């Protein structure tokens, strides 16, 4: 039976073995797990980790509410003070950094379950969009993400949450 859950420290050596990565990667992934803006979800089957996804929340730029330009001009001209609609909010984006599933289980919807679990966590973090970067030559990944509702945008695939 497949279980999707948040990774623990005990899972990290299994992740390194699964991906055949070295100790440097293990240190990197341990640091990532400790961050509050990152999450590692694992797929476990019969007590063994068979896949994982790493996601993080990033903030880019500022989202300007309606009326910002008008109110800025007013301030520059020493007109009335700022209005309530000048409040700026950061744009929060989820980013899939890595997705890996044991090659023997790749056609069993494990990756789909991992991404869906990551999406649930990102929605709890008040993230509106999920992105990932894939190689232009990786048609299998492009097809996979498109089936999940992502849209290709110059080799960056996005999904509004």
Task: Write up what this structure looks like.
- With 161 residues, the chain is α+β, with helices and mostly antiparallel strands.
- The chain has one domain: Aminopeptidase.
- 33% of the residues lie in helices and 35% in strands.
- It contains 5 helices and 7 strands; from the N terminus they run E-H-H-E-E-H-E-H-E-H-E-E.
- A 7-stranded mixed sheet has the order 1-2-3-4-5-7-6, with helices on both faces.
- About 4% of the residues have low confidence.
Shape: globular
Task: Give the total of beta strands.
Answer: 7
* Number of self-contained structural domains: 1
- The N- to C-terminal Cα distance equals 28 Å
Q: In terms of topology, how is this protein built?
A:
Blueprint: E1 2-6, H1 12-19, H2 23-34, E2 38-45, E3 48-64, H3 68-76, E4 88-101, H4 110-124, E5 129-133, H5 139-147, E6 151-153, E7 156-160
Parallel strand pairs: 4-5
Antiparallel strand pairs: 1-2, 2-3, 3-4, 5-7, 6-7
Helix pairs in contact: 1-2
């Amino acid at each position: 039976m497949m279980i999707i859950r948040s990774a623990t420290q005990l899972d990290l050596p299994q992740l390194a073995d699964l991906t055949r990565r070295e100790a440097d990667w293990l240190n990197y992934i341990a640091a990532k797990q400790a961050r509050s803006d990152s999450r590692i979800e694992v797929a476990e089957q019969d007590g063994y980790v068979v896949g994982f996804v790493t996601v993080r929340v990033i903030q880019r730029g500022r989202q300007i509410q309606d009326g910002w330009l008008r109110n800025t001009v007013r301030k520059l001209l020493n007109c009335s003070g700022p209005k309530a609609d000048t409040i700026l909010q950061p744009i929060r984006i989820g980013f899939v950094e890595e997705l890996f599933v044991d090659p023997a289980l790749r056609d069993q919807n494990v990756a789909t379950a991992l991404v869906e679990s990551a999406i649930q966590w990102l929605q709890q973090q008040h993230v509106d969009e999920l992105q990932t970067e894939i190689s232009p030559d990786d048609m299998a990944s492009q097809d996979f993400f498109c089936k999940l509702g992502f849209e290709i945008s110059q080799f960056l695939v996005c999904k509004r949450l």
